[in-house]
Each structure stands twice: as structure tokens, then as C-alpha cells.
Amino acid sequence: MLPFTYVHAEDDPSAPGSTETSDDAEQTETPAPVTPMRATPYPASERHQSLIEHMTLFQRAEEVITLIADGNGAADSFYGLFLRERSGNPQGGALILHDLGQHAHWPELVAPLREGLTESGWTTLAIELPSPPVDRLPVRQPQQEVPSSAETEDNDQADAPQSPSEESQEEPSNAPLDDREEQETNEVAGTTEETTGPSVEEQRQMYTGSMTARINSGLSYLASRGQLNNVIIAHGDAAVWAAGIVQTRQRETENANGMVLIMVDAREHPLSPLRLNQILDTLEIPVLDILTADARSTEWQDQQRLGAMKRKHRSGYQQIRLSSASADSVTVLRRIRGWLKTNAAGTELP
């Protein structure tokens, strides 16, 4: 007599209450992959907004002012940090331009200058500079679904040789092959045109217009507060834009009396319409060029700039290399104070 074997319902695939399903059922229940949305971050706006909140938190909100720049045919609102001189012996106004990726109270160079120069009689104004344009994010293509086994079988059957009667039932395409290829090409080209942004030249013009408009707005604000003897202090990539402003004012007014330029770790920006050496060749004002251990330019570029100024016999140009000091060191602040006292303090306009 053979022993009985008990089979539970959950172990029998053919049982009515079996929990196992077929491959087709699993494929039907699997949801289609969803393409995630791509979000564009705004680190520049968050950086500057955090600065304003920081000033408010430390009860220094009175230093924050709102400026308007008329650039690219539209009004541009931005902030500035204004401090009056505290020595009782006013010398003029200092417009401070931060490097790219920073803000108007950056702890490296910008904040020490805007606070320290007030002890020497200089009213300071540090302004927010626009962020350079960035390349647009590429369009993410949806992922292709992996065909199921059932779909694969259907495709195999469709690829099988057809009988003459079946071939006769297919309707041929009315458009010739060349026309269809041209249509597909136009559709792809149209999609590319929609996803592309302004050209490199348009981006350069917009960025240049916004940068120059903000610097001019800062100088106008200092003039409205009675500061006509001005110095522009530019850090990093902002140097080429500051030099361009001085060049324009020198050309329009036939002189640039009452204005000097200080550059710290100057570097040319690729969106600038002119090279820094070309602009400095035309300046007839005192220029201080400080190079620290944080400089991102090569020694060859710095030597080329110094040689270009010597060929033009620009006696007002001075290049100082501080290889052992960083941009936020006390040595840089002392150098700027001493140079301003010799070359800019007490200048009277005609």
C-alpha cells in the first residue's frame, strides 16, 4: 500500500487559490517607467538672499540698499551694502566688486575692505554682480521600455515572410522616400531650435550690458551721496569689467579725474568683449595691480600685462606680487590703504 501525499493549495500552481501568476499578468501589473522632471537650481539667488538674511539677523539691515540698473532695455533691481566713513576725515567713495561666485560681503577680501576702509575715511559700497550665463541643460530623452515576451512573439510573427495575399493587403506610403526623410529631418531640426537658447554672442551682450549697468548705478549712487572722488576695487573676474567702465568714462569725458582702479588677482573673463591688457593700455589713471597667492592667472599672463604697461610708459601703473599672502590677509588691506593715501586721497575735481 502506497503512502498518501498531501499537496497544499498554495503549493499547487493549478489550484484555484494559487498565488502564482503567469508572466503576462506580471508584465501587465508592472507600471511603465516615469521620466523624472529635471529641476534647474538657482545657487546665485540663494547665495545673495542668504546674505540679506544674515545682515538682518545681525541687526545690520540698514546697510542694505536697493539699486536700479537700466541695462538691456529693462530695469534691473539689485542690492548693495553701503557704509559711511568713520574717521571724520572723508577721502572719497570706494566701489567694491566681488569675484564671480561670491557676494557683496564675501569674507575673502570684500568684507575686510568694505569695513576696514571706513576707518581710513573711505565710504564703501559693495554691490551685487550678475551671475554669468550657463549652458542649458540637455533635453532628457525618455527611456525605452524593454519589450515583453508576448510583444517579442508578436514582432517575430510580423517579421515572418508573408504570403502574396497578405502583402497585397498592405497599403503603400503615398509620400516618396526622399520626402519622408526630409520631413523627419525638419521635425528634428524644429525640436532642436525650440530647445536651444540665445547664441553665445547674445549671451555676451546681455551679460556685458547687465554688468556695466550695475557698476554705473553704483557709481551714480556714490555721487548722489556726495562722493565724487572714487576708487573701484575689483576682485578676480570683475577686474576686466571695472577697467572697461573707467575706459568708457575716460573716453566720454576726455578725462577720468577723481577715479582710480585697484585690481586684486585680476583675471580675464571669456565673455568680455575686450582683453584686459587692451583696456589697460588706454587708461591714464593710477592703477594698482595686486597679485596674491590665490591668483588664478599664470605668471606669464601677469608679466605680459606688466610689459604692456611699460611699453606705454604708464607711470601710474604699479604691479605688486604678494606670493606669501592670501587675498584676505591684513597685508593686502594695508597695501591698499597706503596706495590710496598716496595716489587717490584728496584729489580735487577741476
Automatic annotation (TrEMBL):
GO terms for molecular function: hydrolase activity. It holds the Pfam family DUF3530. Keywords: Hydrolase. It comes from the Bacteria. The keyword Nuclease does not apply. Transmembrane segments: none annotated. The keyword Heme does not apply. Residues 141-150, 186-198 have a biased composition (Polar residues). Residues 1-41, 129-202 are annotated as: Disordered. This is Alpha/beta hydrolase family protein. The lineage of its organism: Bacteria, Pseudomonadati, Pseudomonadota, Gammaproteobacteria, Oceanospirillales.
